[in-house]
Design goal:
Shape: globular
Number of helices: 7
Order of helices and strands: EEEHHHEEEEHEHEHH
Structural class: alpha+beta
Strand content: 25-35%
Helix content: 10-25%
Family: Belongs to the UPF0301 (AlgH) family.
InterPro entries: AlgH-like
Distance between the termini: 22 Å
Pfam families: DUF179
Protein name: UPF0301 protein IG616_15800
Largest sheet: 9 strands, mixed
Length: about 190
């Protein structure tokens, strides 16, 4: 049995070879012997806003768009990763759970990938805090472990306040500092914290 990274941060090291993940902070949602799955927390999909997405999914129409809760209207859509980029995922607090649809991860953080949660959010009935991502980051069995061994990633405990922090631009630094790592001290061949 491999030690699980579920519920942990995966932070891209400065020598990250895959430019899609440069300065990325990923929240690991699942990590088993079959592989790993996570969502990038600090890449915004600037080509799409939440109101347009809700219209495309027929969650709202012209009238209901006016009644969208302010915190939902201001919500960014994130690029969760390069896999299945048309598929949506909501990372959220555990105050909203859908039976047989919500994956409870750790420390009050859950993952739901249904239209039902988006409808609840549009109506103001959803979770207190949420992050909506299109696509996800995935690794085959042993792939993530090999990338960590090659110093591509730093792993550490996830902080809920950072997971749901709306300042995507400052997340990489905040995540490192939350683990006691000074970003200025990182070099391409640094070790693990």
């Amino acid at each position: 049995m491999i030690p699980t990274l579920e519920g942990q941060f995966l932070i891209a090291m400065p020598n990250m070879e895959d430019n899609r993940f440069e300065h990325s902070v990923i929240y690991i949602c699942s990590h088993t012997e079959q592989g790993a799955m996570g969502l990038v927390l600090n890449q915004i999909a600037t080509h799409l806003n939440i109101e347009d997405l809700f219209h495309q999914l027929n969650i709202i129409n012209g009238d209901s768009a006016i009644r969208l809760p302010p915190q939902i209207r201001q919500m960014n859509i994130h690029k969760g990763g390069p896999v299945e980029m048309e598929r949506g995922f909501v990372l959220h607090t555990d105050d909203y759970v859908i039976d047989r649809s919500t994956l409870e991860i750790q420390n009050g953080i859950c993952l739901t990938a249904t239209l039902e949660i988006l409808k609840a959010m549009a109506e103001g009935r959803g979770p207190q805090q949420a992050l909506l991502a299109l696509g996800y980051s995935g690794w085959a069995p042993g792939q993530l472990e090999a990338e960590i061994q090659a110093n591509g990633w730093l792993t550490g405990p996830a902080d809920q306040s950072i997971v749901f922090d709306p300042d995507a631009g400052g997340l990489w630094h905040k995540a490192l500092l939350s683990m006691g790592v000074d970003p200025a001290m990182l070099f391409g061949d640094a070790g693990h914290a």
